Amino acid sequence: MAKTVSYAQWALEPYSIGLKLRSLRTQKRMTLSRLAAETGLSTALLSKLETDRMIPTLPTLATICRVYGVGMSYFFNEPGRHKLSITRRTHLETVGRGQEAIHIVPLNAVDEKSGMLARLIEFPSGSTASIAECLHEVSGIVYVLEGKLLLDAGGMQEVLETGDCACIDSEMSLAWSAADKHRCRILAVVPAQPAVEA
């Protein structure tokens, strides 16, 4: 039988009150029994509040706030920034299966406030490209997820294997490719391009 959620639970869910209560208690290194002794509330009630099985009344929350030394705004402050980009594994597993050119899958949405750009880049065997063609930056972190990556930097070649990571910050011309006859998949994270002003 599905658990029904009240309107109050639904409306308060984005504020994560239970999680904030538990975080405050662990930061203060307090046990539930010590908090119960200092607030006059039962450990059972405090446990229910921390696990979101019960919604605190304002007087109860005010009592807890006094013990922790925080204001009510701590629990009801609107987040200034919140972004979450999800790329499902099934999408990643179905792209770039042929011997076509390098395939790039964006892993996060980019807008004028983005600080980073994450890409899954798949190199079929034998494909080569300059890093700038794939990332539009020659600064960032590359992590090899599968296969071997051949990194060519001004005539110096490095082979990165699965699990290897490279931090790149260079003005040199760089190129990369699958290092052997198998495909190579990498995760590349670079600073997002600043917005161009008109």
How would you summarize this macromolecular structure in one to three sentences?
The chain is an alpha+beta fold.
List keywords for this structure.
single chain, 198 residues, alpha+beta, four-stranded antiparallel β-sheet, 9 strands
What's the structural blueprint in terms of helices and strands?
Elements: H1 7-12, H2 17-27, H3 32-39, H4 43-50, H5 58-68, H6 73-76, H7 89-94, E1 103-106, E2 116-123, E3 128-130, H8 131-135, E4 139-146, E5 148-153, E6 156-161, E7 165-169, E8 174-178, E9 184-191
Antiparallel strand pairs: 1-2, 2-9, 3-8, 4-7, 4-9, 5-6, 5-8
Give an account of the 3D structure.
The chain is of the alpha+beta class and 198 residues long. It has eight helices and nine strands. The chain has helices spanning 7-12, 17-27, 32-39, 43-50, 58-68, 73-76, 89-94, 131-135; strands at 103-106, 116-123, 128-130, 139-146, 148-153, 156-161, 165-169, 174-178, 184-191. The strands form two sheets. A five-stranded antiparallel beta sheet has the order 1-2-9-4-7, with no helix packed on it. A four-stranded antiparallel beta sheet has the order 3-8-5-6. The protein is elongated and about 70 Å long. The chain starts with 6 loop residues before the first helix and ends in a 7-residue tail after the last strand.
Global geometry: elongated
Assembly type of the chains comes to: single chain
What is the mean predicted local confidence, pLDDT?
79
Number of helices: 8
The biggest sheet, with number of strands, parallel, antiparallel or mixed sense and barrel status, is: 5 strands, antiparallel
For the record, give the distance between the C-alpha atoms at the N and C termini, rounded to a whole number: 57 Å
CA radius of gyration is 25 Å
Question: How much helix, percentage-wise, in residues?
Answer: 25-40%
In spatial order, strands of the major sheet run 1-2-9-4-7
- Overall number of strands: 9
The helix/strand order is: HHHHHHHEEEHEEEEEE
- What amount of the residues lies in strands? 25-35%
Structural class: alpha+beta
- Low-confidence runs (pLDDT<50, min 5 residues)? 94-99
